[in-house]
Amino acid sequence: MELMKSTDRPTRRGPTDWFTGTVWQDPINEAPEPARARSVRVGFEPGARTAWHTHPLGQTLHVLSGVGLVQALGGPVRTIRAGDTVWIPPDEKHWHGAKPDIGMVHLAIHEALDGVHINWMEKVSDADYRATPED
Ligand code: MN
Asked: Which domain holds residue 64?
């Protein structure tokens, strides 16, 4: 077995190519092959969000704190709160992030296919981000 200590894994800033605003990432696991599971705790400051993207084998998001937003292409912006869990099917184009005025922290759990767990696309426009969310 392997014990991965928190003190050996510094918090990373989310790359500006793929995130709008300030995002902090704390890795949880990246299991070696043939295992596929990966997970990361992601903290979005108010107004921060991912770019549009897909996951080849889907993704589960579990909100740990705060209030956030999630949207699949062609669907409404949805509000997500601490305790909520979201399943995003394989290859569904989507984004997730904090509310404009409230931060949000979620677990992101996904599997890698041929070493790839995410395919990044364009950033989310302010107009799309500011659309009135469903509760
Ligand atoms: Mn995602």
From this structure: 13-125
